[in-house]
Amino acid sequence: MTQYSMIIDLQKCVGCGACALACKAENNTELRNNGQTHNWADFVHITTGTFPNTKYQTLPVLCNHCSDPACAKNCPTEPKAIFKTADGITMVNNERCVGCRSCQDDCPYSMEEVLKDGAYGEYSVISYNSDNIPVHGFYRDGKELIPGCTSSGIDTARVLRATPPHRTKYDHPDYEDVREESVVEKCTFCDHRLKNGELPACVEACPSGARVFGDIDHKNSEVSKLLEKHKSFVLMPEKGTKPNVFYVRDYSVTA
Ligand code: SF4
Ligand code: SF4
Asked: What is the atom index within ligand 1 of the atom nearest the CA of 64?
């Protein structure tokens, strides 16, 4: 059996966001959709303590590809649009999804719940495509980021004679490279890349090697060895979903 898993080493994570950007570029996800955060790879930030004894923590979050996924329990389609693959990925089949959003309601990680004490900020695990907004809207944005100071996206693109980059194309039986409106979408562990022998885009992009990916059912894999070496934790273990994203060690930034 194969159970793909990810380990995030919080001591190596510097909170740079390269993983989230790589995910957006790879999977053509929107910045926001109908006012809601739309990130397959996301973060929560946690500040604890009172100045000057404060601690700032960054916690990368994504779909946990749970072994007992709450998201799939009430999916009404037959076969289920959200399902487990043979190698342990929680996948959404875009064709079967009818956009009822019960998976979003049922996934304990897909709400703005406090994951750990002091966590704040929006994050998303399952996103809903309410509008089919063109990808890379930055190139069409006429607003200055800082009024009177910076150029707008459209001005920058004009000066640089840049055209919108072509979206990343891939071919997958369950999900399209850009999803249709009125369906949900989420992290796929970059299954289309795994099939080509590549790592998920977020793992490859991480400059500090904080994200490690592999088969947890294989005892000689790097993920298995890391879990043996370090004490690990998962988010909200009390929900009983058996996550396959593990965190090891402690946060990188303390002050
Ligand atoms: Fe499903 Fe949520 Fe677990 Fe991902 S994190 S497998 S969406 S229950
Ligand atoms: Fe299933 Fe789609 Fe409804 Fe989610 S939104 S429960 S994947 S049909």
From this structure: 5
